[in-house]
Amino acid sequence: MNTLTMSMAQGLQMSRSGYTQRQWDRTVGWGKVPKEYSNMTKYVEISLMEDGELSIDGQTKPGGNLDIREYENGEWVGGCYATYDNLVEKIKEALEE
Fold first, then answer.
1. Residue 44 CB neighbour total at 10 angstroms
2. Which of 34-43, 56-65, 71-80 has the highest mean pLDDT?
3. First-to-last C-alpha distance (Å) of the chain
């Protein structure tokens, strides 16, 4: 599997200023950081799948030949399959809030 990680310079990684949970605790003193105030980094990894490679469940054929994995703050949180025809649309969906 060939993997391509797109960087912020290429427009596929989003980062914004905000609070970490520790900063929030020190500033506000209680509760979890609301999403609109969080310091979050989102990015995707795009992998070209081999011919005949099965989807993540190991049983079915994927919906495209590109595997897109979504990450937030370095943690894998989701993903989808794409074709070259709908790749841009799928990446936009992954990075939107």
1. 20
2. 56-65
3. 28
Q: Cβ neighbours of residue 60 under 8 Å, at least 6 residues apart?
A: 54
Q: Show the 3-state SS of the chain.
A: CEEEECCHHHCCCEECCCECHHHHHHHCCCCCCCHHHECCEEEEEEEECCCCCCCCCCCCCCCCCEEEEEEECCEEEEEEEECCCCHHHHHHHHHCC
Alpha-carbon distance values, 94 to 18, 43, 50, 53, 61 (Å): 20, 8, 23, 23, 21
What is the pTM assigned to this prediction? 0.63
- 31: left (phi > 0), else alpha (psi -120 to 50), else beta? left
Every domain of the chain and the residues it spans:
2-95
The string of pLDDT tens digits covering residues 9-52 is 333 444 456 777 788 888 888 888 887 777 777 889 999 999 99
